[in-house]
Structures are given as C-alpha cells and as structure tokens.
Amino acid sequence: MGLVLAFLLAVTTLSQQVTCTTLRPSYKAIFNFGDAYCDTGNLIILEPTEYIGNLPYGETFFNRPTGRASNGRLVLDFIAQSIALPLVPPYLAKGQDFSKGANFAVGRATALDSKFYQDNNMIPPSIALLNTSLSVQLEWFENLKSSLCNTTDECNLYFRGSLILVGTIGLFDYTIMVSAGKTVEYANSKVPIVVSSITSAARSLLDQGVQHMVLAGVVPLGCLPRILTVYVSPNGSDYDSIGCLQRYNDISQNHNRILQDAVKQLQIEFPKAVISYADYYQPITEFLAKPTLYGFTVNGSPFVAFCGGGGPYNYNSSAVCGQSGVTACPDPTTVNWDGIAFTEKAYNIIANGWRNGLYAIPPI
C-alpha cells in the first residue's frame, strides 16, 4: 500500500507545473535542435501556409498560433521556464535576441540529409521534403555563433554554461521511408545510420566546449493516431497490449536503444560533460495505458486525437487539424493533439520527468 501511495503521489506531483527543485547548474542559454516535437516556429516561417499556423494550434497558453504543433507549450518551453530562461525563439525569426538561446528545430526535419531520400527515390506523396536536416541546423548554429561570442575561449566559456538539446529527431526519417513505400523492416534497418547522424551532430557540439547536453529519444511511432489510421491492421496480433501497432513501435524502440548506447559512448569520450538521455517513449505509453491516472480525459479511447477530421482515432489525412471545418474536442486534456503531436498537458508531465530524473538519466 505504501508503494502505491508513493507512486500516486509522484504522479500527482508530475501533473503540476514544472518546479525548480532539482536544478542543475544555472544555465546562460538553451540551444535546441530537432523536429516538430520541439519546433517553436521555424516551419511556419519557411512554410507560411502550414496548417499549424491556424487555430486551434496555440489556443491553450498563447491564445494564438505560434508555429508549435500543439495546443500550447512544448517540453522545450517547460524546460526553459523551469530554469528561469525565456521561451526559446525560433532561429529563423527576425529581430530576436538570441543571447539566451535559439531553437533550430523545424517541423518535418530529418536526421539524414534530404539528398539521401532524393538519391534513393524516397519522395513520399503529399509530403514536401525540406532542406532542414540536422546538418543544416548545425550550419545555422555556426552562422549564429559570431553574434554570441568572438574568440574560441569566449565561445567555449559561453557554451559551457549553456544547455544543448538534440532531439527529438529521427521519427520523420522513418515516416518518410514507409510513406514512400519502403517496408517497416527497411526503415528498421536504417535506424543505425539515423542515430549515427544524431551522434555525429552531438559530438561536433561537444567538441566546441558544450558541457551540458540532452539527447532525446523518439516517441512510440506505432501509438500515433496517424499511423494507427493509415496502417490499420485486421490482425489483432499486430497490436500490443495497449493498442499500438507493435511493428512500428519496434522502430522507435530500436532507435532509442541504439541512441542510449551512443550516449554512453559519448560520456566516455567526453568525461567532463554531463550528457543525458531523455525519453519520450516511456511516458507516452504510460499515459495511453493508464490515462486517468495521469489526469487525461478519455474520449472513447486514449488514442483519440484532440483535434482532427473524424474516424476511430479522430485523424483524417484529408481533413487535418488547423484546416477549415476541422473541429477540436472541448477538453484539451487528451494525450494526443493532432494525430502526430501531443497536448500541452502531456508535454508538461514529460518535462517534469526529465527535470526530476523519472524520464531522463541523469536528470536535466
């Protein structure tokens, strides 16, 4: 009974606003690299007609669309607030003060360069490839550095006091592969090169004096309403115990396992740096398995997206969230937001877990 009460107390604590009770060093700035799960506005600057530029995106906290793929704040936002730093501005925004950090993440960004997909004839229908891969984001970082510091010593000092987050990124790589007609097995076989690209980016940043880094894993691909809708199976054995498509989750699990091994190797190579592995997979599967325990509402199924165009999971590729005529459920406390991304409530709990060591090792 004592263990149950302790667990419930921990869950209750995690569902509250992020606190600063487990602070690491006081950071001067945050720099972030990744995809839609941590993009704070770069995609909407590149593609102004993107549906995330419309309500109900941003309605919960910002009261307007900001380019975030959620109803409110992302994990990155909660991390910044918990360490008393401003919300991290998108790098492509004009007239921003980047002295406290910059966000290079872009929705639909890939870990591998777009050339890989073009050379291998993997151009999925209805999905535009952008030149915003991880290597491009690193180029943006290099371009920004001269405005932040001048000498090598000055830059090393500046970035030693900064928090660097790499990821989540990689999920869109696998989505492109299967959307372009490749098999799940093929996508799984490419996990090592996707993770290698992420590791190389992390190593290049650590070489520049970074002392505090977070590498985030990917979300459970087979639990996303979009995947559950597009690749629905008549075979019940294709689903795991909570209702996710296991073959697609295998990709995410493989990615996260290899990334965790890479983090351990980086810790050996850079013993003076604090390098954390942060998890999206575990908390999201926990939310879906026991939604009411974490305070989520269940509209028939915990997998149902908050905003969408109907169907068993409220996801319809012909009528996605943000498009005219697409409605949102009345209560923004579901797990999933639009069939791909998650709600502010989910991101808040995940951020708490990263800060308190429940979903990140070591804690951020």
Automatic annotation (TrEMBL):
<dbReference type="GO" id="GO:0016788">
    <property type="term" value="F:hydrolase activity, acting on ester bonds"/>
</dbReference>
<dbReference type="Pfam" id="PF00657">
    <property type="entry name" value="Lipase_GDSL"/>
</dbReference>
<comment type="similarity">
    <text>Belongs to the 'GDSL' lipolytic enzyme family.</text>
</comment>
<keyword id="KW-0378">Hydrolase</keyword>
<keyword id="KW-0732">Signal</keyword>
<dbReference type="InterPro" id="IPR035669">
    <property type="entry name" value="SGNH_plant_lipase-like"/>
</dbReference>
<dbReference type="InterPro" id="IPR036514">
    <property type="entry name" value="SGNH_hydro_sf"/>
</dbReference>
<feature type="signal peptide">
    <location>
        <begin position="1"/>
        <end position="20"/>
    </location>
</feature>
<dbReference type="InterPro" id="IPR001087">
    <property type="entry name" value="GDSL"/>
</dbReference>
<protein>
    <submittedName>
        <fullName>GDSL esterase/lipase</fullName>
    </submittedName>
</protein>
<keyword id="KW-0325">Glycoprotein</keyword>
